[in-house]
Write a structure and sequence with these properties.
α1 crosses α3. The protein has about 300 residues and is α+β, with helices and mostly antiparallel strands.
Length: about 300
């Protein structure tokens, strides 16, 4: 395990970790990459239709270049200073999966997603316990309070086409994640993720057989500011397209989030309010260009 900056950003590699399930997880990374490549590269184009507040994705087999994909996005009014195509599915709780909206091709899509997400969920549990112990808390302090049986996991598939104006157009504008923890499977060859460290944007390197673990806003709130939710962005590439898969793990929207009491004392007073449905707060702030964490400070 390596850490790019204290409490901020982790890159987990099976070669440097004693987590037993990371060996199997690495195999699923390869399967997942192959699965995602089957959608977008080289001959897939995504069309999204917005109906009744849900996205229905139609997959069309056609010869298509990234430039044509850009034209399709422009035609749907999706061109902006942040440019990507994405689709998301709810993975956990399992009984809330809307399988009718899951892609039917490749035929093993559901199986691969389930296995990968299950192993990532296990790994997240191990990390939360280790983080609690590092703060001299009971090992289940974060898991029990923040991520009970109703915890949500969302999988998001991101496609960043080539961009001739990569100096002016981002893949994703600067933001912090609303989650408790985000697990990212990066593109195998093309970098793009950057983290803000001491006022400078620092690239997150691609490490073979590794995943990136990013702490979200809700963990910063729970830890009373000890663990940080880093500001990050995605840059575009003028020559090559990029793919990534992110898993976001967060509490049920009705769960109240607040700093753990044992992390509040005279030397470290309480920093954040008790909040509910933080995901909505984060989303609305993102649309307005505000930092959500700043709005819930005491």
């Amino acid at each position: 395990m390596s850490v790019s900056s204290p409490h901020h950003h982790l890159i987990l590699s099976k070669r440097r970790s004693n987590l037993t399930n990371l060996e199997q997880l690495s195999a699923h990374q390869a399967a997942f990459r192959q699965l995602v490549m089957g959608y977008q590269v080289p001959f897939w184009t995504t069309y999204a239709k917005l109906r009744h507040n849900s996205l229905n994705f139609q997959w069309k087999r056609r010869k298509s270049t990234p430039d044509l994909f850009m034209v399709a996005l422009k035609g749907m009014g999706m061109m902006s200073l942040s440019q990507r195509s994405k689709f998301s599915i709810g993975v956990f709780p399992e009984d809330q999966r809307r399988l009718n909206l899951w892609p039917k091709f490749p035929t093993d899509f559901g199986e691969v997603v389930h296995e990968y997400a299950t192993k990532v969920k296990y790994m997240i549990g191990v990390l939360f316990k280790a983080m609690a112990k590092s703060l001299n808390l009971e090992e289940n302090s974060f898991l029990d309070h923040l991520f009970g049986g109703g915890a949500l996991m969302q999988a998001r598939f991101n496609f960043y086409p080539r961009c001739s104006r990569s100096d002016q157009v981002l893949g994703v504008k600067p933001h912090t994640d609303r989650s408790g923890m985000t697990v990212l499977l990066q593109d195998k060859e093309v970098e793009g993720l950057q983290v803000l460290v001491d006022g400078k944007w620092v690239r997150v390197p691609i490490v073979p057989h590794a995943i990136v673990v990013n702490l979200g806003d809700q963990m910063q709130i729970m830890s009373n500011g000890i663990f940080k939710s880093p500001m990050h962005r995605v840059v575009t590439n003028p020559d090559r397209m990029r793919l990534s898969v992110a898993l976001f793990y967060e509490p049920d929207p009705e769960t109240e989030i607040s700093p753990v009491e044992k992390l509040i004392d005279e030397t470290r007073p309480r920093l954040y309010k008790t909040v509910k449905n933080y995901g909505r707060i984060n989303y609305e702030c993102y649309q307005r260009g505000e930092i959500a964490l700043e709005t819930v400070k005491l």
